[in-house]
Design a protein that fits this description.
Chain A is α/β, with parallel strands linked by helices. Chain A is built from five helices and five strands. In chain A, 41% of the residues are buried. The chains are: A alpha/beta, B mainly alpha.
Chain lengths: 135, 301
C-alpha cells in the first residue's frame, strides 16, 4: 500500500502547476490560430480540469507569442497542430496526437496538447487522458 | 629476461582472467546501453547516462587490444616488441575517463545555468499509461549492478598483473555505478519537482571522476616519458620499484640506478661495469614479482 501510495505521489510539477490549478480553479488554455479541430483536445482538458475542481480559462494570445507564454508560465497548456519532429520539441512537452494515430510522416503537423517542460504531473495526467481517448 | 617476448607464464592465467572479465564487461554494459536506450525517451539525463555508458566501454576495448598486441612477437619492424601497447592503452583509457567526467560536468552545468526543467512523461504499456520515470529507475538499477560487480572483481586481478588499464577500467566501473545511483536520485528528484536535483547529483559525481582521471593521466604520461614506475592507484613511485632500486644499490654500491616501465614490465639500468654474476629477477624482485623485471642493463663509465 505504501509503495502504491508512493507511485501515485510521483511525479509532481517543477512549477507547481497542478497545485495552482486546484487553488485557483482555473486551467489556462490557449488554442493556436488555425486549429479548427481543437474540440477533442479541449474536451480532454475539460475533463482534467473537472477532476481538479477547475474549469477551462481560454486565454487569447497571438500565435507568435503563445509558445513563449507557455514557457514563461503565463498559460498552462497550448492546443495546436504540431509535428512529431517539431522545432519546438525540446522547448515544450508535446502529447501524442489527439483523436488520431501518429502519422507516418514525422513532419506532418496534427492536433496535440503542448505542456510546459517539467510539469510532469500535468504531462502524465494529460498523456493518460489522450491514451484513454484513443482507446 | 627479455623486453620483447609475450606474456610471462607467471601471470598468463590472470591475464586471461582479465580478458574474460573485459568480454563480460562488453556484454553486460552493451546490454545496459540497449535497455537504457529503449527507455531514455526525451530525458537529457538518461541520454547522458547512455553516452557515458558507451564511453565506458573504451577501457575494456583497449585492454583487449593491448593484450592481443602484447602477445605478439618482436619483429624487424618492431624490434622491441609490442609491450608498450599497454602504456598507450592506459593513456587512451585515462583520456576516456576524463572525457566521461568532462561530458558530465558540461551537461550538468549547462542544465543548471539554463534552468532546464526535465520532462518525463507517460508511457503506455499493456494498455496502462505509467510514469516513464519508474521504467527509467528500473533500467538504472539494472545498469548499476554489472559495473558494481565487475569493478570489484577486476581490482585484485589488476593488482596481480600490475595492469593500469584494467585498474582504470575498474575506476570507470566505479564511475558507472556512481553515476547510475546519481541518475536514480535525479529521476526521483524530477518526480518530486526538483528540476535541479539530477544535474546537481551528476555534477558532484563528475568532479570525483575527473579527479580519478587526472591522476590516471599523470601516471600514463609518466609511463610514456620513461618515468620511474608508478604505483597502480597513484602517481607515487611503486613499492616494488623502490625495493628494486634498494636491492641494486645494496648489491652494486651507491651507483646511479634508473628504472622505467614498459606496460607492466620494468627495465633497469645501472651505471657500473657488468658483474661477473648477474643477479636473477627473483633475487632482485622476489619470487612473486620476478616477472616484472624484464631487462637489466649495465652502463660502464
Amino acid at each position: 500500500m505504501l509503495a502504491l501510495g508512493a507511485c501515485d505521489a510521483l511525479p509532481r510539477d517543477a512549477s507547481g502547476t497542478t497545485s495552482r490549478v486546484e487553488r485557483t480553479h482555473e486551467l489556462r488554455v490557449t488554442v493556436l490560430p488555425g486549429t479548427p479541430d481543437a474540440r477533442p483536445a479541449l474536451a480532454l482538458l475539460g475533463a482534467y480540469a473537472r477532476d481538479h475542481g477547475a474549469r477551462l480559462q481560454l486565454v487569447p494570445i497571438h500565435g507568435e507569442h503563445a509558445h513563449k507564454a507557455l514557457e514563461d508560465g503565463e498559460i498552462d497548456v497550448l492546443v495546436g497542430h504540431f509535428a512529431k519532429a517539431s522545432p519546438w520539441q525540446a522547448d515544450i512537452a508535446l502529447s501524442k496526437p489527439v483523436a488520431r494515430g501518429e502519422p507516418d510522416d514525422r513532419h506532418h503537423p496534427v492536433l496535440r496538447i503542448a505542456r510546459r517542460n517539467g510539469d510532469n504531473a500535468l504531462i502524465l495526467a494529460t498523456d493518460r487522458l489522450v491514451d484513454e481517448a484513443a482507446r | 629476461m627479455s623486453l620483447h617476448s609475450g606474456i610471462p607464464d607467471a601471470i598468463a592465467a590472470d591475464v586471461r582472467h582479465g580478458e574474460r572479465l573485459e568480454w563480460w564487461t562488453l556484454l553486460w554494459i552493451g546490454s545496459v546501453v540497449v535497455v537504457m536506450g529503449l527507455v531514455m525517451g526525451a530525458s537529457q539525463a538518461m541520454k547522458s547516462a547512455v553516452i557515458e555508458d558507451v564511453l565506458s566501454l573504451i577501457p575494456a576495448i583497449v585492454f583487449l587490444l593491448s593484450v592481443h598486441w602484447e602477445r605478439k612477437r618482436a619483429n624487424r619492424r618492431f624490434p622491441f616488441g609490442y609491450r608498450r601497447a599497454n602504456s598507450l592503452a592506459f593513456l587512451v583509457a585515462a583520456t576516456a575517463l576524463l572525457s566521461v567526467g568532462g561530458f558530465l560536468v558540461y551537461e550538468s552545468v549547462t542544465t543548471l545555468v539554463r534552468q532546464e526543467h526535465p520532462t518525463v512523461g507517460g508511457i503506455t504499456l499493456f494498455g496502462e499509461t505509467i510514469w516513464l520515470g519508474w521504467l527509467m529507475i528500473a533500467a538504472l538499477v539494472y545498469s548499476v549492478i554489472p559495473p558494481l560487480v565487475l569493478g570489484r572483481i577486476k581490482q585484485p586481478v589488476a593488482k596481480r598483473i600490475n595492469d593500469k588499464v584494467l585498474h582504470t577500467d575498474a575506476l570507470m566501473q566505479k564511475a558507472d555505478w556512481q553515476t547510475g545511483l546519481a541518475a536514480i536520485a535525479g529521476i526521483i528528484g524530477i518526480g518530486l519537482g526538483w528540476w535541479w536535483a539530477d544535474a546537481s547529483a551528476a555534477l558532484f559525481i563528475a568532479l570525483s571522476i575527473i579527479k580519478d582521471a587526472i591522476g590516471a593521466l599523470k601516471q600514463a604520461v609518466a609511463e610514456l616519458l620513461d618515468g620511474t614506475p608508478r604505483a597502480l592507484a597513484s602517481n607515487a613511485i611503486a613499492d616494488d620499484a623502490k625495493a628494486l632500486i634498494a636491492a641494486l644499490e645494496a648489491r652494486f654500491g651507491q651507483v646511479e640506478v634508473r628504472l622505467r616501465e614498459t606496460g607492466r614490465y620494468i627495465a633497469a639500468e645501472v651505471d657500473c661495469r657488468p658483474p661477473a654474476v648477474i643477479p636473477t629477477e627473483a633475487e632482485l624482485m622476489g619470487e612473486d614479482k620476478a616477472w616484472r623485471l624484464a631487462s637489466l642493463g649495465f652502463r660502464p663509465d
